[in-house]
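Input (structure):
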C-alpha cells in the first residue's frame, strides 16, 4: 500500500523523523499492534525544517492574537465613546446679551448589541478533517483485524486501507504540501496551519502503518498459510518450481523489461506515480566501478503470480513479480555483478485543476492535464527497510523527496495487491454470495412489468444493493430506450462501469431516433480517462454530450424520460444517491426515488436546462440543488426544527451521510442541540462535529457503520417539520460550493416509513458500529458481551435479499 525478500511480508512502516508537534488534536493515537519502524534521515535537515515550521507557526499564532486585540478595542469604542477633554466639557456658549448656554452634549453610548449566534459557540468546536479521515481509515483497518470476519475478506480490507491511503496522499496531503510550499498558511477550521496538519498527519499515519504492518505480518499472513494460501519468496520455491518460473520469465517477462542506467549519458529516469520499481546497484568486474540502474516492474502482469500449475486443489501459492525479476537480474545486466537491489515506490500529487475558463474545449484541456498528472511532484517515497544509505540518498536527491516523506517497508510493499486474493476459490473464507432482490413494485413475471405503468401508480423507493439495480434503475433506462412512445432521455453520468448497460441503452435510444442528452462529468477524479472515452463513444452514436458548468463538477444523480401518452407528455424521473454503475450498485449502499410526480419532473427539466444551456436557477419546487440551495435549505430546516421544538412539538434531526465537515451546517446542529433538539448522525467517513460537549452538543450523537457494503446514501429527516430528503450531496464544502448536487424530498408516507426503518436500524442500540466521543475517540459499540446485530444483514433480510 518491500524489500526484495518477502519473508516477513509486512506492510509499510514510516521512517521516523522526530517531530516537535504535540499529540493529534483530533483523537488519541491508537495502541500500536506491533511492527516498530526504524528511523533514518537527515537530522540537520529535519531540525532546521522543524525550527522553521515552529517559527512560522509562532508568527501565524501571533497574528490572530493581534487582530483580536484590535477587534476588542474597536468594540469597546463602539459601546462606550471616549469622554471629551476637560476643556471641552467645561466649555460654555455665550450669546451677545451675555446669556450663557450649555454646549450640545455628546451622543449617548451606542446600543449594546446582543451577541450573534456564532459568538456564542466556542472556537475549538471542530475536529480536524484530515485527522478525522485517518480515523476513518483506522476503522477500515479495524475490520481487517477483526477475526470474526472471513479471512479473505480481512485481506480485502487490508488492501482497501492501502488503496485509501494512496489516494489520501495523492490528493489531501499533496494539497497541504502545495499550500505550505507556496506560503499560503490559511488555517483549517480547527486553527491549524498546513505545516501543522502535515506534522500531525505524519505522526498519526505512523501509528496506522505500524498497525497495518502487524495486521499482515503477525496475523493475516500466518492465518492464510494455515489455510494453504501462501505468499512466498523465490528462495521458498522448490527446484522444479524455480526451473518452470525461470522459463516463464525468459519467455513472458524478460522481453517487457527495460533496465535504465543512471550515468552522465543516461539521466535519472522518470518514475511514474504508484509504479513498483527495483533500484539496482551493479559493479563492473573489470574496473570495480559501481553504477545505479532502475527496473520498472510491469503493471500489465499480475503482481502476485500463481505458482501452481494445477488449480483444482485447496492450496494457492503466490510469488510477487518483483521476486521473480530480482532472481534474474543477472540476465538483465550481463557481465556485471549485482551488489544490491531493493523495491521502491513513489506517490505523486494527483490533485490538479483545469483552467476551464481559458479553454474552449474542456475535453482537450482535461486530456492535457491528465498527461501532466504522471509528472506531479512526489509526496511520499516508500522504500525497502534494508535499503543502503547511499541508495536512499540517491533516490532522495534525484526524486527531490523530503526525508520526512520516506516510509520504510520491512516486507511486502504495496498491499493493494491483496485484492488479487479474492480470486482464490475458497468460498468458506469469503462472505456468502449476495443476491439482491427485485423490488416488489417491479416483481418478476414472464414479461417484466412496464416501469412506466408502475410509476403511474405511485412513487417507488429503491434501496441498493438490497433492491436489484438491474431490475429497477437499469430496466427504467433500457425500457425507455426500447419504447416507441419515449421522445427523449436525459441522463447524468459521473462514474459508470467499463461495460455499462446504461451507456449501451443510451446509444440504442439515440440510434432509434430519440433525443438523448448525456451530461458526462469528465472531471470525476481518477475516472477522467474512462469518462472521456464514454463521452466520445456517446457522441459518435448521436447522443448530445455536454460536460456541465464551467468551474463546477456535476455530481448529482438524475435521469429523466419524456414519454408521449395520448395527447399529453409525461415525465418520469430517477433521483439517487449513487452512480449509474451496475457493478458498484452491488457493493455500495444507496437510495433512489423513481417517480412520475409532475412537480419533480418540472424541477428536473429546469435542472437539465441549467446543466445544458444558459439557464440560471437556484430555487425549485421539490428539490434542493447546490451550489446555492442545499446548504441554505438544510440550515433553514434545522432552524425550523428549533422553532417547532420551542413551540412544544416533538422535534428531532437524523442525518446519514458520508462526511460532515461544513461549518455552517455543524454550527446549525450545535444550535439545535442547545435548543434541546435531539440530533443523530450516522457518518461513514469524516466528521468534524464534536458530539457530547456540555453546553454545546450534549444532545448530539454520532456513530459510524462500516461493513460488507460501503454506506453511501445521504438522507436527512426533520421530525417536527415532517420532511425527508435524499440525494447526492455530503455536508462538505466541495459538495455545497463547487459541485452541482441535488436532493429530492420524499413525500409518500409509505416511502418515508422505509427511510425511517433505515434510521431505526442504524441507530438501534444493539447495532454494531463505532460511536464518536467528545474527545475524538471512535469507540466500538456495543460493549463486548452485549447482544449485537448487523445493520446491513438485517436490511438484506428485510428486503428479501440473499447473502
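Output (sequence):
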Amino acid at each position: 500500500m518491500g524489500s526484495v525478500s518477502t519473508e516477513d511480508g509486512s506492510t509499510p512502516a514510516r521512517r521516523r523523523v522526530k517531530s516537535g508537534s504535540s499529540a493529534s488534536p483530533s483523537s488519541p493515537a491508537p495502541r500500536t499492534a506491533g511492527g516498530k519502524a526504524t528511523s533514518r534521515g537527515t537530522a540537520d535537515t529535519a531540525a532546521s525544517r522543524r525550527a522553521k515550521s515552529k517559527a512560522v507557526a509562532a508568527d501565524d499564532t501571533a497574528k490572530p492574537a493581534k487582530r483580536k486585540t484590535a477587534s476588542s478595542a474597536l468594540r469597546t469604542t463602539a459601546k462606550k465613546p471616549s469622554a471629551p477633554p476637560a476643556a471641552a466639557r467645561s466649555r460654555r456658549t455665550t450669546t451677545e446679551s451675555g446669556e450663557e448656554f450649555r454646549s450640545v452634549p455628546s451622543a449617548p453610548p451606542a446600543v449594546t448589541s446582543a451577541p450573534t449566534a456564532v459568538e456564542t459557540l466556542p472556537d475549538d468546536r471542530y475536529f480536524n478533517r484530515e485527522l478525522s479521515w485517518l480515523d476513518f481509515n483506522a476503522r477500515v483497518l479495524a475490520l481487517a483485524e477483526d477475526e470474526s470476519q472471513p479471512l479473505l475478506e480481512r485481506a480485502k480490507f487490508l488492501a482497501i486501507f492501502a488503496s485509501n491511503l494512496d489516494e489520501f496522499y495523492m490528493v489531501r496531503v499533496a494539497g497541504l504540501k502545495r499550500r505550505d510550499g507556496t506560503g499560503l498558511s490559511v488555517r483549517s477550521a480547527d486553527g491549524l496551519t498546513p505545516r501543522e496538519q502535515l506534522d500531525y498527519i505524519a505522526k498519526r499515519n505512523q501509528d496506522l502503518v505500524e498497525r497495518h504492518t502487524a495486521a499482515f505480518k503477525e496475523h493475516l499472513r500466518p492465518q492464510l498459510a494455515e489455510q494453504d494460501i501462501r505468499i512466498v519468496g523465490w528462495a521458498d520455491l522448490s527446484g522444479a518450481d524455480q526451473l518452470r518460473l525461470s522459463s516463464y520469465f525468459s519467455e513472458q517477462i524478460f522481453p517487457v523489461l527495460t533496465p535504465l542506467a543512471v550515468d552522465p549519458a543516461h539521466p535519472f529516469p522518470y518514475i511514474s506515480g504508484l509504479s513498483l520499481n527495483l533500484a539496482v546497484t551493479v559493479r563492473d568486474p573489470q574496473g570495480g566501478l559501481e553504477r545505479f540502474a532502475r527496473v520498472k516492474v510491469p503493471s500489465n502482469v499480475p503482481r502476485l503470480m500463481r505458482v501452481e500449475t494445477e488449480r483444482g486443489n485447496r492450496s494457492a501459492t503466490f510469488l510477487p513479480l518483483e521476486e521473480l525479476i530480482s532472481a534474474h537480474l543477472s540476465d538483465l545486466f550481463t557481465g556485471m555483478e549485482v551488489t544490491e537491489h531493493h523495491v521502491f515506490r513513489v506517490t505523486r500529487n494527483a490533485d490538479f485543476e483545469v483552467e476551464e475558463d481559458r479553454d474552449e474545449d474542456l475535453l482537450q484541456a482535461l486530456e492535457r492535464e491528465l498527461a501532466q498528472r504522471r509528472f506531479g511532484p512526489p509526496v511520499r517515497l516508500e522504500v525497502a527497510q534494508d535499503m543502503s544509505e547511499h541508495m536512499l540518498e540517491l533516490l532522495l536527491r534525484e526524486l527531490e523527496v523530503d526525508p520526512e516523506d520516506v516510509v520504510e517497508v520491512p516486507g511486502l510493499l504495496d498491499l493493494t495487491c491483496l485484492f488479487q486474493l479474492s480470486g482464490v476459490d475458497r468460498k468458506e473464507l469469503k462472505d456468502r454470495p449476495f443476491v439482491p432482490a427485485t423490488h416488489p413494485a417491479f416483481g418478476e413475471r414472464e414479461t417484466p412489468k412496464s416501469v412506466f405503468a408502475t410509476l403511474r401508480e405511485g412513487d417507488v423507493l429503491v434501496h441498493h444493493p438490497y433492491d436489484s439495480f438491474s431490475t429497477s434503475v437499469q430496466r427504467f433506462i433500457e425500457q425507455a430506450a426500447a419504447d416507441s412512445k419515449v421522445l427523449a432521455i436525459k441522463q447524468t453520468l459521473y462514474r459508470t462501469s467499463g461495460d455499462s448497460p446504461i451507456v449501451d441503452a443510451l446509444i440504442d435510444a439515440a440510434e432509434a431516433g430519440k433525443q438523448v442528452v448525456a451530461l458526462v462529468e469528465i472531471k470525476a477524479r481518477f475516472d477522467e480517462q474512462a469518462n472521456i472515452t464514454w463521452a466520445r463513444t456517446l457522441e459518435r452514436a448521436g447522443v448530445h454530450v455536454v460536460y456541465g458548468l464551467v468551474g463546477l463538477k456535476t455530481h448529482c444523480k438524475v435521469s429523466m424520460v419524456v414519454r408521449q401518452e395520448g395527447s399529453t407528455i409525461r415525465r418520469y424521473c430517477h433521483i439517487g444517491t449513487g452512480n449509474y454503475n451496475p457493478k458498484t450498485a452491488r457493493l455500495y449502499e444507496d437510495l433512489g426515488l423513481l417517480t412520475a410526480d409532475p412537480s419533480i419532473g418540472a424541477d428536473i427539466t429546469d435542472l437539465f436546462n441549467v446543466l445544458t444551456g444558459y439557464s440560471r436557477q437556484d430555487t425549485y419546487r421539490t428539490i434542493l440543488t447546490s451550489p446555492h440551495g442545499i446548504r441554505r435549505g438544510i440550515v433553514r430546516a434545522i432552524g425550523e426544527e428549533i422553532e417547532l421544538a420551542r413551540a412544544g412539538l416533538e422535534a428531532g434531526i437524523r442525518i446519514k451521510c458520508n462526511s460532515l465537515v461544513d461549518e455552517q451546517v455543524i454550527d446549525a446542529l450545535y444550535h439545535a442541540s442547545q435548543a434541546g433538539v435531539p440530533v443523530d448522525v450516522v457518518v461513514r467517513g469524516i466528521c468534524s462535529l464534536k458530539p457530547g460537549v456540555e453546553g454545546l452538543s450534549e444532545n448530539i450523537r454520532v456513530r459510524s457503520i462500516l461493513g460488507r457494503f460501503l454506506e453511501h446514501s445521504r438522507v436527512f429527516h426533520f421530525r417536527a417539520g415532517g420532511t425527508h430528503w435524499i440525494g447526492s450531496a455530503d455536508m462538505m464544502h466541495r459538495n455545497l460550493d463547487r459541485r452541482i448536487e441535488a436532493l429530492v424530498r420524499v413525500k409518500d408516507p409509505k416511502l418515508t416509513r422505509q427511510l425511517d426503518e433505515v434510521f431505526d436500524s442504524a441507530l438501534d442500540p444493539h447495532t454494531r458500529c463505532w460511536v464518536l466521543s467528545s474527545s475524538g475517540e471512535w469507540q466500538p459499540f456495543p460493549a463486548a458481551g452485549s447482544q449485537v446485530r448487523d445493520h446491513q444483514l438485517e436490511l438484506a433480510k428485510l428486503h428479501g435479499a440473499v447473502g
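Notes: The mean pLDDT is 85. The chain is about 35% helix and 20% strand.
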